[in-house]
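User: Structure tokens for this complex, please. No commentary.
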Amino acid sequence: GESVGLHLPTLSVQEGDNSIINCAYSNSASDYFIWYKQESGKGPQFIIDIRSNMDKRQGQRVTVLLNKTVKHLSLQIAATQPGDSAVYFCAETVSGTYKYIFGTGTRLKVLA
Amino acid sequence: GAVVSQHPSWVICKSGTSVKIECRSLDFQATTMFWYRQFPKQSLMLMATSNEGSKATYEQGVEKDKFLINHASLTLSTLTVTSAHPEDSSFYICSARDLGARAFFGQGTRLTVV
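Assistant:
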């Protein structure tokens, strides 16, 4: 397979604080990046995406930052809520290949 | 966003039997669908790319005779786990891409082989 995962790292944040989840991607040719949220027993849910011609994109309470120089992607969640507790995956793809490669994932725990 | 429906959401089968999992794009046509496998606390591992009307493309290390994929229409792909064994127990997830290249995922199928 394309991505062999390790045991998931965990990020614990207090409710109301901002969360930053990081991802290092592998292919310098990748030009489209996506963040997914996965709750237990469910499929991944799209959060936000960004193309390589951008370095920042904002959504509702979420911001994705892309640093192509160091092949780094981050997801910022503002005012983290208990419902944000889940596993977050970044995915990368090269346009035209139709293949997504997933990162190892980060478990976000929101503390009340 | 587009909806991808996967069925069943969970299945328990006996060793040696075969199990079929369906993946449907409900409101868009998907010429390409993907099948992933996910072990507990791990990331999604791409198993194969399913192309409508042609043979699937399998990732290295994935047995094509073990995991049969059929993409008979623009809205349906099926994954059949043949002669299932306990080590095939896993969470299987499909996805489908729309014209905008964004992938939408099904809700996953929990397979338990006893």
